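A further point concerns the way the authors explain their paired sequence and structure data. Since the whole study asks how a given chain folds, the encoding of that fold should be made plain. A single example would do more here than another paragraph of explanation. An entry of this sort, consisting of the sequence and the corresponding backbone structure tokens, reads as follows:

_____
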Amino acid sequence: MDPGWRRAYAHDLGGGVREALAEVLAQAPERVVVDLSEVEFIDSTALGVLIEARTKLENRRGFLLASPALETRRALEISGLDRHFSVHDTVPEALVAKV
């Protein structure tokens, strides 16, 4: 995914990540895997971008998050979003996960 994800703060999401996800979702894929391995911190606006993107996928279970670092995983858990997103330890796991 876009290097903008390294620091997934509101000011980094001036449209780049949102637009990249919109382009991918416009192709109506069965599965979208967002690699979070280089995300150092994620704020509420960035989480909102993920939520918005997921709602645009016909099968929402096909929107998967992969490789979140400790702080990113913690943000997903504290917000309760880990119960709504399919979160995987690695990209390969997400690519073969049942959707």
Observations:
- The helical segments are 16-26, 44-55, 70-79, 91-96.
- Confidence is low (pLDDT under 50) at residues 1-11.
- Residues 4 and 66 are 16 Å apart (CA to CA).
